[in-house]
Structure formats: structure tokens, C-alpha cells
């Protein structure tokens, strides 16, 4: 089980990313628009830099929904490899069978 503080920090980041998504998208679009004057694009870039760091989507870490583990994460199922194996063995994941030979 991961530390509660790590999991809570990640939840906070997700919430902040959703909160600033619109503003961040507008500023990025303005900063990338080549038809605008350089001063206006630079001002947009400065405003973008003043936004909180945790409002960026790249700061979010994919974590297992059950344990909070950050490594070995399966995006499709939102669980780590350990929990995937355990759930598959218990027959909790439809269509997944543990192979044996």
C-alpha cells in the first residue's frame, strides 16, 4: 500500500488540473498562435508560467485504484500488476483466465 500522503497529493493534482484546464488551454493556444504579435505570445507564456505547477496534466501520476501503487500500472483496468493477478485468480475480471500448463 502506498503512502496516504502520496495518494492524496495525486488526488489534489487531478482536482487542480480539472480546475485550471480551460484557462491553461486558452493560454497555450494564444502562446502557440504564430499570427499574433510576439509580445502578446510572450505575455501569454508568462501568464502560463504563473499558474500553479500542479495544475499541469503532466504532474499527475497514474496510480492503482486499490493500493495506490505507481509502478506496473495497467491503464485499461486502472490497477497495478499485483492486483491484476490477484483479481484474475479470483475470477473478478471478466474474460481473464490464469493460464497453466
Topology:
Layout: H1 4-32, H2 38-50, E1 73-74, E2 79-80, H3 81-90
Please tag this protein with its features:
two-stranded antiparallel sheet; mainly alpha; 2 strands; Helix Hairpins; elongated; 2 domains; single chain; 101 residues
Structure characterization notes:
With 101 residues, the protein is mainly alpha-helical. The protein has 2 domains: 61 residues, Orthogonal Bundle (Helix Hairpins); 34 residues, no CATH class. Helices cover 51% and strands 4% of the residues. It has a two-stranded antiparallel ribbon. The two termini are 32 Å apart.
Strand order of the largest sheet: 1-2
Q: Which parts are unreliable, with pLDDT below 50 for 5 consecutive residues or more?
A: none
* Domains (count): 2
Largest sheet: 2 strands, antiparallel
Amount of helix: 40-55%
Mean pLDDT: 94
For the record, the CATH architecture of the largest domain stands as Orthogonal Bundle
